[in-house]
Automatic annotation (TrEMBL):
Belongs to the PC-esterase family. TBL subfamily. Residues 48-101 form the Trichome birefringence-like N-terminal domain. It comes from Selaginella moellendorffii. GO terms for molecular function: O-acetyltransferase activity. The lineage of its organism: Eukaryota, Viridiplantae, Streptophyta, Embryophyta, Tracheophyta. Keywords: Membrane, Signal-anchor, Transmembrane, Transmembrane helix. It is a single-pass membrane protein. This is Uncharacterized protein. InterPro entries: TBL, TBL_C, TBL_N. Its main location: membrane.
């Protein structure tokens, strides 16, 4: 749901009760955004809010969470430096959950509460997008933060004032995979006219994260964006193996994803320390209009989707992938005793205005790579994900104090 408050409200101080007032007032205008409910599958976890249901409210007093000079930025997402128009408005939208308050994280307070702990992100570039937002937000609480890249991490940061470490381990399929030459293809695929293929061992974790399950106190996992014909077209398919042998008959793309999840989730749960928090972030939606990224797909809009538009965009067609993969992930996690689901999908579906689009950090890069309607401008929408993440983490550790 998208709403714009009356101008008189803008003059109200942004005090702690503001979120509650907004939620009460706007719940009478229209029903909340509907989506997959956040699951608190850890029986010992504190009760949590369903942050996925709520309203976007335009708050002109809301400022970007950090500047273009944050040292953890990735150039293609640094939309301020790329001079993307409308960046102040992108950051001025505030998500108001229906059931609870969502305060902006206090960076120093969060780091103090996490003193001596470690947070690990595992997954694809959308988790990296999330990580960069978190690092830039928290740097306001510790300007001495420095880059960190150990334990096989792709990137990360260390906050010395609080002895907090945050890392990102890139593992786009979660499972181990490598390129296969046509001569190495198993039986039914050997005589086909494939350019190449990729072997995925559904029961073997990617080496990028296989040995860090005892290192972090909080994990944020994701996968999904590489499980598509866009990444692995029909003439360069994924070929799935189990116990070192090809699975025959060959699995389709989504069957393969399900097989990976059904092996990886129990493996993660068995290896996690009993004191760790494990979160699974659901899909970040795409907003390609008029075609895929390589078919002149665009996301140049400055407006949010309405409820009706949102259903048309994501129930079928180019952008329906997120909901379909979420359903599959939810099915696998239903029996989990340790994972909690971080559902950022519904609130993000409205935000077609918040992607880098053609502002990719390099002149005319979109002519080669197409518009980026998948990742998010920073600062921007992922900063709201950060607020939700920090609330969940603080609640988890508070419940164990």
């Amino acid at each position: 749901m998208v709403a714009t408050p009356p101008s008189s409200w803008i003059l109200l101080p942004l005090i702690a009760i503001a979120a509650t007032l907004y939620a009460l007032l706007f719940s009478t205008i229209a029903p909340p955004a509907r989506g997959i409910q956040e699951l608190a599958v850890d029986a010992n976890a504190a009760p949590s809010c369903d942050y996925s249901a709520g309203t976007w409210v335009l708050d002109p007093s809301r400022q970007p969470s950090y500047s273009e000079d944050c040292p953890f930025h990735r150039n293609a997402w640094n939309c301020q430096r790329s001079r993307r128009p409308g960046m102040e408005r992108i950051s001025a939208w505030r998500w108001i959950p229906r059931q609870c308050e969502l305060p902006a994280v206090d960076p120093a307070g969060f780091l103090a509460a996490m003193r001596g702990r470690r947070l690990g992100f595992v997954g694809d570039s959308l988790n990296e997008n999330f990580l960069v937002s978190l690092l830039c937000v928290l740097r306001r609480g510790d300007p001495t933060a420095r880059k960190w890249k150990r334990k096989g991490a792709w990137r990360g940061a260390f906050f010395p004032s609080f002895n907090v470490t945050i890392g990102y381990h890139r593992a786009v399929l979660l499972a181990q995979y490598r390129e296969l030459q046509p001569s190495d293809l198993p039986g039914p695929l050997k005589n086909t006219k494939l350019k190449k293929a990729f072997r995925v061992d559904v029961d073997v974790p990617a080496p990028d994260w296989a040995n860090v399950l005892s290192f972090y106190d909080v994990f944020i996992f994701n996968t999904g964006h590489w499980w598509s014909r866009d990444k692995f077209p029909d003439d360069e398919p994924l070929v799935f193996y189990r116990r070192g042998k090809p699975i025959l008959p060959p699995l389709g793309m989504r069957e393969g994803l399900s097989a990976v999840l059904r092996h990886m989730v129990p493996r993660i749960e068995a290896a996690l320390p009993s004191t760790a928090l494990a979160l699974w972030r659901l899909q970040s939606p795409r907003h390609f209009e008029g075609g895929e990224w390589n078919q002149n797909g665009s996301c140049m809009s400055e407006t949010l989707l309405s409820d009706q538009e949102r259903e048309r965009w994501f129930s079928s067609g180019t952008n329906s992938e997120a909901r379909e993969i979420n359903t599959l992930i939810q099915e696998v996690l239903q029996t989990s005793q340790k994972f909690r689901v971080l559902n950022i999908t519904p609130l993000s579906e409205y935000r077609r205005d918040a992607h880098p689009a053609i502002w990719l950090g390099r002149k005319d890069a979109h002519l080669t790579w197409g518009q980026d309607c998948l990742h998010w401008c920073l600062p921007g929408l992922p900063d709201t994900w950060v607020d939700i993440l920090c609330e969940i983490i603080l609640g988890f550790f508070h419940s164990r104090a």
